[in-house]
Amino acid sequence: MNKIIAVVGATGAQGNGLVRAILDDPEGGYTVRALTRDATSPKAQELVKLGAEVVQADNYDEESLVRAFTGAYGAYLVTNFWAHMSATREQEEAANLARAARTAGVQHVIWSTLEDTRDHIPASDPRLPTLQDVYTVPHFDAKAEADSLFTSLGVPTTFLRTTAYFDNFAGFGWEPQRDAAGELVLNLPMGAGRLSGIAAEDIGRTAYGVFKAGQEYVGKTVHIAGEHLTGSEMAAALSRALGEKVVYRPLSHDEYRALGFPGADEIGNMFQYYTEHTDYFTGVRDLDEVRRLNPALQTLDQWLARNGDAIPRH
Length: 314
Hints:
Elements (H helix, E strand, L loop, with lengths): L2 E5 L5 H11 L6 E7 L5 H9 L2 E4 L5 H8 L4 E4 L9 H18 L3 E6 L24 H15 L4 E5 L2 E2 L11 E2 L5 E3 L7 E5 L1 H14 L7 E3 L3 E4 H12 L3 E3 L4 H5 L6 H13 L1 H6 L3 H7 L6 H8 L7
Parallel strand pairs: 1-2, 1-4, 2-3, 4-5, 5-6, 6-11, 7-10, 9-13
Antiparallel strand pairs: 8-9, 10-12
């Protein structure tokens, strides 16, 4: 009998990649149970048509999660900080997920998490604003804090430390901007550092590789990325994809934080962490190991070849 993997956020960026990886491997020994807040949505119904079992569950409703996890061998757990931008709410979600997985007796959980940036840049560092009272980068730090929930509850967990999406170039404000002279400019505030990026769907596909590896990864932390690139290398890849030169002209971290859009201070802090600790962040992400788990792992060029048409040209 095939083992069931319950996937939280099945219509979202990470979860959808895992759902499709399981569906694309009908002989792999697994079936998928796709969790979503609205099982009647077009995205959910598309998964039904592809052959997924789709069930309603909400990260703020622990009982619904227990029902959705019951009978499942594995569960992929993810939260979306950007839906509310609250570390407190994200921790509430994580606690519900951890308790529900324990109650349902899930044998292998993958928790999508990130580093605690305060291990390198304390929230008290005067060079950066302290956010939500105690955080340097809340969407990193709150997930890292939640890791201990799974450990303390005895949930058999693999901690999957993710990274920035290549998809941000097509919908999160990372796309090149046209300057007064009409030139396309990439102005991400990363100086000469390298950014670990990954296609969002590859997070789910790599998670599938972890599930297939079995108990070997329970209790372990797996750091993932698709490629480590400088700003100049990203600009060159964008130039190739768009057929127009893109120049890398980074803002400073303070300039980026001052842009004023919701979350600008947090993203500015994140890039300062990436920039100042690029050797650590890229160093723990072994691309060869990730590729063993996900042989189809995409580079930025490969992702752009499939998705370049979605990148705005302002």
